[in-house]
Amino acid sequence: MPLPRSAALRRTALHTALALASSAGAAFAQPPQDAAASDTVTRLDTVTVQAQDYDPCRDDTASRIVVASDELTRYGDDTLADALKRLPGVSVSDGAGGGAIALRGLGKGYTQVLIDGRAAPPGFDPATLRPDQVERIELLRTTTADLRGEAIAGTINIVLAKQARRDRDRLTFALKHSGNGFKPSAAWSRTRRGDASSSSFDASVLRNDHQVDERGIEQAFDDAGAQTLARRTDLRARGVREQLSLAPAAERTLANGDRIAWRSGLEVRRHRKRGDIHWSTSLGPELDHTDYRQRTDLRLLQLRNELAWTHGFASGARLETKLNLDGNRERTRYREDADGRDGARNLEEATDSRLDVRNHALSGKYSFAVRGAHTVQAGWDLGQDRRSERRVQRLAEFPGFPGKSTDQSFDARIRRSAAYLQDEWSPTPRWSLYLGARWERIDIRSAGSDFAPLRNDAQLLTPVLQSLWKLAVDQRLRLGLSRSYRAPELRELTPRPYTSTNNRALDPDRQGNPALRPELATGLDLAYERDWGEAATLSVGGYARRIEDFIGESTRLLDGRWVASPLNTGDARSHGLELDGKLSLAKLRKRAPDLDIGLQFNRHWSRVDAIPGPDNRIDRQPRYTGALSLDYRPAPHWTLGASYTHRSGGPVRTAAREIEAQTPKRELDAYALWKRSDDAQLRLTLTNPLRQDGGESFEYLDEGQRLRQQRWRKSTLGVRLEWQVGF
Fold this sequence. Notes:
Blueprint: H1 7-28, H2 35-42, H3 46-49, H4 56-59, E1 65-68, H5 69-72, H6 80-84, E2 90-92, E3 101-103, E4 111-115, E5 118-119, E6 134-140, E7 154-160, E8 168-178, E9 181-193, E10 197-222, E11 227-253, E12 259-283, E13 291-312, E14 318-339, E15 345-370, E16 374-395, E17 404-407, E18 410-428, E19 431-448, E20 451-472, E21 475-486, H7 490-493, E22 509-510, E23 519-531, E24 536-558, E25 561-584, H8 585-588, E26 595-608, E27 624-635, E28 638-647, E29 650-655, E30 658-662, E31 665-677, E32 680-687, E33 694-702, E34 705-713, E35 718-726
Parallel strand pairs: 4-7, 22-25
Antiparallel strand pairs: 1-6, 2-3, 4-5, 6-7, 8-9, 8-35, 9-10, 10-11, 10-34, 11-12, 12-13, 13-14, 14-15, 15-16, 16-17, 16-18, 18-19, 19-20, 20-21, 21-23, 23-24, 24-25, 25-26, 26-27, 27-28, 28-31, 29-30, 30-33, 31-32, 32-35, 33-34
């Protein structure tokens, strides 16, 4: 796809480039300073003494929220997915393994998820990480040039713990039980630190038994309101996930000051699942398959390696490079069978697939400071993904249902290249500017046994400007202007059909569209921040996004089967208000109880122009989300806490003929922590004591009738006990 031709984008990119060039040029053009001036610069070493007071959330021009490890581990969550839902503006939807992560209520590619600054692998499951494996999480609501611009809603950067702070061995044992089954886990970590080198090793095993009980109804009504269909659905699915993870790391500082770091990770996972669905129709046409059984056995082997080198120059400049070599092998065995209304077998399917993914990437950045309070950075990213899948599907022959054997194999290559330039400049002590521009190219080639070779090539320029005004020592105003995008995923581009068992408008086949173009967004972010020392912080802000080439979905009847496919539909808009505050009573008043309070509230509005209203919001975006947390320390070794999160529900019109709705989601968690020392602690956690069942509905407005499907999923109470000991 050629570069976007919008005049506004060309002007923005030109202005950004000129600003960067002029700022750097002006800095280099300054005459040499005399000896007295040089002495003055030397005396600035006093800044180093005050570095301990540096706070990236407060002092960085590029706005970000940094959540440290102690906040992530506070509730004793067994997976990172559970910890993420309490972060400002973050929501985690229900799904296998923890579901999809979203900022500002927008998932599905609008939220960029990174691990150590690199894109998370396809299908990344936050439930495969423990909170104590994470050093910090960075939330960026505005893009930056050094990271991918694929972040219309924002970026979540998960920074894994890697540098050993001291010699330590730690064992952690945990057991969780809920109505869904037992979840035992164990982890061991070892860290060693010397004068010039450090190393760490982390190993963990877990088993997760889970069960889903779901009931549903399907109905249809004609234009006169008379009911023409009544059908009931009962679903039960059980699964077991077993996982072994190993993560060694080492770092060494050479005699010349260069630093070399190596990190690796090995994950072996097996997931077995079996599900049973029964459909009973009391009014209307009977389904072909009324009793359905599914068995899935997935085995995954994933390996990642990262080698980093950092070199400092005498001038103060720094060069950082990274080489990443990753790969995974996935084997899936899928079996299903079904009976008709008469109890006779009429479906047997066997599908076996082998997926191999190989990825390599080389990235680097060169940063230096110049006179005039400029910090300039230039960098590059080069990478390639190779994916090869062999998928064979066999259908047995039954009366009225012909048998067949199909080979749905494909090979794909995804090449990414990027270059960027950014400058952080402080014209005055209270005002700083961040200017950046990033050029990216995404080149996709794919060919399969059941579809013609496809090519999708996109080039994108994403400029960004951020500004920080320090109105006072404790008050700040932030402004961000950015260009970002959302690229179609490979599955959205591949024209391979994925068939449904009982094909109908409420359960269509799905097929990709090779002609999809990336969504392009122009964004504005504004925030006011206030703090009262360490006692309290408050952030109030808003955002707006205008999206071009919005990717929607259309369901149509083709050759006797219902098929859903993505397509570019036009423009969309989203805006919202955000509030985040924290209060520590003990730091505010001397004799106050040792109680910390956290409060979040987010209100969102969005509209898709090509979809008729009302409720034509983007990606099922909730109208509002909120959270309240309390942490109380009644005694030196004890901490008690609770958190409540709320996500609104209601209808969302996802296409001209399709409406989806969810019930509001309310979750309450509580914990009690006894901490003898940093190396010995015991934690009891209660999850979901409200036990609110979740519900959702789907409607399709067909010619002359209205189809509706409603589903309810049972929720259960969870109890988790964790013992941690160090030596």
